[in-house]
Amino acid sequence: MKGLERLSGLSEGALPALAAGLLLFPLLSFLDRAAAGLLPSALVEETCKFLLVLAFAGLPPSRSSGTSRAIVAITIFSALETLAYQASFPGTPVWGRLFWSSPVHLVAALAAALALGRAGLGLRRALGGALALGFGLAWHLLANALAGLPGGPGPLLLAALSIANLALIVALSRAYFLEVILGEGAGTEVTDHA
Fold first, then answer.
1. Up-side HSE of residue 46: CA atoms within 13 Å toward CB?
2. Which of 168, 192, 190 is nearest to 179 (CA)?
3. Is the Cα torsion angle 119, 125, 131, 136 positive or negative in sign?
4. Contact by Cβ (8 Å): 190, 124
5. CA 23 to CA 70: how far, in whole Å?
6. Nearest 10 degrees: CA dihedral of 58, 62, 65, 71?
7. pTM over 0.70
8. Nearest C-alpha neighbor of 104 from the set 65, 68, 145, 64
9. What residue ranges do the domains of the chain occupy?
């Protein structure tokens, strides 16, 4: 019965997650243009997405449902970004974005949700959050650098990053499920006395 309660708790936040995902794309588009030449777009995107996860983590009924909603919102943002790229560059295949760019966003979202969903409120949560933000930013910058290679990344590099993305998504999803979703209900959530 507890599992059903948890699922209903996660689904209750569908509307806020949808709204956040729909609003995140135009917000980040605006901020990317405003910061052009001053800050890398990956820094703007990852910082805003991290702040979204942080905000959702504080929403009721629980940290796990909040961070789960943030993952949904970032997935919606990523889909909108892919559609916008396809509309802007109609002759390019969408596969590169689906196997390269969209998973990069999901990896960063999962890392932030794992760090902010499982940690206590003190120093451990701050350090975990900083590490997750740094990891998400580094992963995004690496993908952007590889995509910017002369002639593009090529099929072998595209396959390698796609496999790495998939492996990270599986590992982070598993950890998120075990440590945040199940850990919260089992009373095993890490507490911090710092």
1. 27
2. 190
3. positive
4. yes
5. 13
6. 30
7. yes
8. 145
9. 2-185
